[in-house]
Amino acid sequence: MRDTPGAQAPDMLAWTCPAPLRDQPRVVMGHGGGGALSAELVEHVFAPAFGGPALSVTTDAATVELGGARLAFSTDSFVVRPLFFPGGSIGDLAVNGTVNDLAMSGARAAYLSCGFILEEGVETDVVTRVAQALGAAARAAGVQVATGDTKVVEAGHGDGIYINTSGIGLIPPGVDLRPQRVVPGDVVIVSGPVGVHGVAIMSVREGLEFGVEIESDCAALGGLVEAMLAVTPDLHVLRDPTRGGLAASLNEIAAASGTGIVVQERAVPVPAPVANACAVLGLDPMYVANEGKLVAFVPRAQADAVLAAMRAHPLGAGAAVIGEAVEAHPGMVVARTGLGGTRVVDMPLGEQLPRIC
């Protein structure tokens, strides 16, 4: 390409790309995507600043002891756009997301806090609808909103409504769910079809139509986890694959446990509408967020019984075995394709679909 006389040379350092560079001097959207950039931000900025033995960077909730009781404690912030979508709203997400983080520690959620950050100019009716949805979701999940806070920011600085929820719950005796307990031979089970929530949000936000309406799988998973623990308290780890999808969760578990993970690609349940939408959008369903699914690592001896219990629960009816933990390639996730080949399932760098939770 020839230079144009008098034209100003482009500033190469000011260029941006969909997959941000790893040495960004500023925060980019990918830092909130639940992938490698998020992990780097936590590892190099937040963990050193906060410190302390209770700080958990490998699980969805911290496990702490108070007065002889083992508690799960978690917090999450929700910035989804649009505020209402097929299958739910930001209010439902704010409850179910935190309840599920606690459930992944085996805890039954007891109390939530709720902080609303409202943008100046947002309609009161919209705030009311979101608050009512949040309250209904809390009642359905059997959790009480015990305290809260409200702030208002200037117009143009809040995108309508942001919500933060924190939750606390009791962990039953004998339950110890953490990725470090995963061992070779563990069976990997997902509770149902993946990729649904992310595609539902994208279809509404971008005005896309795929022939059928795709609804978010947003749901509170506490009851499903209780059914699984009733079979055996010796589950090794649970994770709800939200930001970064199933791929991010599996990579985090592989790295923390030091095991390899092999996934049978054809065994991963993906609904046809989601698969078709991902094909059109150029997405891999394993990297798309979910809000009502979990992935479990279960000792092989208990896998059949746990799978049967999951399928007997409404939120686990589509549960499927998708792979296993192995000694080979520690810290790495690979997928065996339907053609007999093998591909590496990398940790996502940033976020395929921003602002979905």
From TrEMBL:
Domain PurM-like C-terminal, first and last residues per copy: 184-329
Source species of the chain: Streptomyces solicathayae
PurM-like N-terminal domain location: 60-171
Similarity comment text for this entry: Belongs to the HypE family.
Protein name as catalogued: Hydrogenase expression/formation protein HypE
Domain of life: Bacteria
Record InterPro entries: HypE, PurM-like_C_dom, PurM-like_C_sf, PurM-like_N, PurM-like_N_sf
Pfam families (alphabetical): AIRS, AIRS_C
